[in-house]
Specification:
Blueprint: H1 2-9, H2 28-34, E1 41-45, H3 54-64, E2 67-71, E3 79-80, E4 83-84, E5 91-95, E6 108-112, H4 115-124, H5 159-169, H6 172-190, E7 196-197, E8 205-206, E9 212-216, H7 219-228, H8 252-260, E10 261-264, H9 272-283
Parallel strand pairs: 1-2, 2-5
Antiparallel strand pairs: 3-4, 3-8, 5-6, 7-9, 9-10
Length: 286
């Protein structure tokens, strides 16, 4: 929902494209079908940490002269064709909420390519002021002269969160490696279970495994069975256009995901035996 709301905050209209049934990521063919002369940008979410089809999506954007904004909230440390997510285009947004791969309690960051974007975003995060407090503080005096050229926000991260984030950044690769080990254990233990469809793997990209989403026949029954065994799961996510504030459209991939997807436990406190035990409950049927 937060991705949609970023559009609504600007008085614009979200147009929903479909997702790939295997990955949950934006389907380039569906994006191409929905672009019109009024389309301003494509917003891409790297669902669960698995990188979207960036080459195809950037090619479509280039054909139509529009921008791509990457929502990288799940994908801190993910890679697409040898490069980290956050380095492929002009605008990328990360989240540092407490449950994310790089947790700082809350807040986020943007990575950008152009000096123009960098300068404007620095203004917008601090009320539109063109010189922040640090730059106005000299050796001997505080300078109060500055300009405000547009309406901005108060969205700067505080120093405490930033300090936590810098320390956490040193742990990111190791913790993501552990997430990949957990994902491999799930794959090994669930590979041949009827009715369970595992998330994809590909040689050209590497997931951060913020989530480990599986697709399941009779999903709700499995959720109930695991809950009775003391195992918490989640559903990430329902198709957003079914909420009352939007108009429902024909999206078969999103409909499939809504009815089949569930997230198995994926966090750094999981022991190998926990993954084996969870998998065994699933293997016993539901």
């Amino acid at each position: 929902m937060s991705t949609n709301h970023a559009i609504l905050y600007e008085g614009l209209k979200p147009v929903f494209a479909d997702v790939d049934m295997q990955t949950g990521n934006l389907d380039p063919d569906s994006v191409r079908e929905r672009i019109t002369e009024r389309t301003g940008a494509i917003i891409v979410v790297h669902y669960g940490g698995y990188p979207a089809d960036l080459d195809e999506l950037y090619a479509i954007a280039g054909e139509h002269g529009i921008s791509i904004i990457e929502d990288c909230a799940h994908a801190c440390g993910s890679e697409y064709r040898g490069r980290r997510i956050g380095s492929h285009g002009d605008l990328h947004a990360f989240s540092f909420h407490a449950v994310k791969n790089l947790p700082m309690g809350d807040g986020g960051a943007l990575t950008v390519q152009s000096a123009e974007h960098d300068a404007r975003l620095r203004r917008l995060r601090w009320l539109g002021i063109d010189k922040d407090t640090f730059s106005r503080t000299g050796k001997n005096a505080y300078h109060w002269e500055y300009d405000v050229t547009e309406v901005g926000f108060k969205c700067h991260m505080n120093d405490i969160e930033a300090a936590i984030g810098l320390a956490q950044l040193e742990l990111l690769d190791g913790e993501n490696a552990r997430r990949r080990e957990i994902a491999r254990l799930y794959r090994d233990n669930l590979a041949d279970v009827p009715g369970v469809m595992l998330p994809p793997v590909s040689d050209d990209r590497e997931s951060s495994y913020h989530l480990f989403p599986i697709r399941v026949d009779r999903r709700n029954e499995l959720v109930d069975r695991l809950r009775k065994k003391g195992i918490a799961t989640g559903v990430h996510y329902r198709r957003n256009d079914e909420y009352r504030m939007y108009q429902r459209t024909e999206l078969p991939g999103a409909e499939h995901f809504t009815n089949h997807v569930m997230s198995l436990p994926m966090h750094l406190y999981l022991e190998d035996q926990d993954v084996v035990s969870i998998s065994q409950v699933i293997r016993e049927g539901w």
